UniProtKB/TrEMBL annotation:
InterPro entries, per the entry: Mutator_transp_dom
Pfam families assigned to the protein according to its UniProt record, in alphabetical order: Mutator
Name of protein: Mutator-like transposase domain-containing protein
Positions of the Mutator-like transposase domain: 79-266, 268-314
């Protein structure tokens, strides 16, 4: 029995101690009673350990194995999962071996794959009893077409994360607030690399088209002198703001924007001399730069002039 002191620091009487002890026991019993209730956020009271299963081997999940039930299944009420209704409805039309329709209330559980998963349903036909794996979303495959495939929703989540400028922690914090199953950091990184390469290739193609448009517009404009070339503006932004004494940000991006189109004609990132490298790339493509608009920092411009002595570009603040 605990010892309780009063407001003067003295030990309370036995009667007061019994009253406090009873209050503590009542609270413990109420807590256990609340834990048995199924709430909207079930992970607040109980949580089933779920192993990340995005990269599962083909031997553990093949079309020939009609009886294997994974040990890491969780109930349908475990959390929310992103589901494509048309994909789900088409798979529930009939069993894979017979023509009897399937029902979600017959599910043995769901295996989570990032934001979505696979529901395991055993056919109710006594002569069939086939295990059906119902995917909750569309999938695509990489170079090796084996396993369950890659769910589109996980790739799109990584694409949205890049577009919003957030990381894995912020994304999973948002998903946990919605009680949606989170994505493992390793899986999310793989999907991020998959989407990032496509976005980078698309950006390079867009820069080429914009550069050609900028060159065409610049040649059709009336020039006040005999010089020819494009006019561009440049600027660089860094993830870590400089303090005036040190500029040690490890990541940044620099862009060149055309005067006539107002669009990006080149971009660079994660390099110490990003602006100089972009100037050199345009010079290698035999694109003449007539005028460069930038900030008061002339270090990059002077370095580019030394590397390209035949260039006609001039700096304009």
């Amino acid at each position: 029995m605990p010892s309780i002191r009063n407001h003067k620091g003295r030990f309370s009487r036995t009667k007061s101690v019994k009253k406090i002890t009873k209050l503590i026991l009542d609270r413990v019993q109420q807590k256990h009673k609340n834990n048995n209730r199924v709430s909207d956020h079930s992970y607040a009271t109980f949580c089933y350990p779920v192993t990340p299963t995005e990269n599962i081997t083909a031997s553990t999940l093949t079309d020939d194995d009609l009886t294997y039930v994974p040990p890491d299944l969780v109930p349908l009420s475990h959390c929310r999962l992103v589901t494509e209704l048309d994909t789900l409805a088409n798979q529930l039309k009939s069993c894979r071996e017979c023509t009897i329709p399937l029902h979600l209330h017959d599910a043995k559980g769901v295996r989570c794959y990032g934001l979505t998963g696979i529901v395991y349903i055993i056919c109710k036909n006594s002569s069939c009893q086939t295990l059906n794996r119902i995917k909750l979303g569309k999938v695509h495959f990489g170079r090796e077409k084996k396993g369950v495939g890659i769910f589109y929703v996980n790739t799109k989540a990584a694409t949205g994360m890049i577009h919003a400028g957030i990381g894995e922690t912020q994304l999973n914090n948002f998903l946990s607030s919605l009680n949606v199953h989170c994505i493992d950091a390793k899986t999310l990184k793989i999907r991020e690399n998959e989407a990032g390469s496509v976005l980078e290739n698309q950006a390079i193609m867009s820069n080429k088209d914009t550069l050609q448009m900028e060159i065409l517009n610049s040649t059709t404009e009336d020039q006040t002198d005999s010089r020819s070339g494009i006019c561009i503006s440049t600027d660089t932004c860094w993830q870590k703001k400089g303090s005036g004494r040190s500029y040690n940000s490890l990541s940044g991006v620099s862009t060149l924007i055309g005067k006539t189109t107002g669009k990006v004609v080149n971009h660079k990132g994660m390099e110490p001399d990003m602006v100089v490298e972009m100037f050199k790339e345009l010079d290698e493509k035999e694109v003449d730069i007539l005028e460069v608009v930038g900030d008061d920092d002339s270090t990059g411009f002077d370095r580019a002039k030394r590397l390209m002595p035949n260039s006609k570009m001039e700096k304009n603040k």
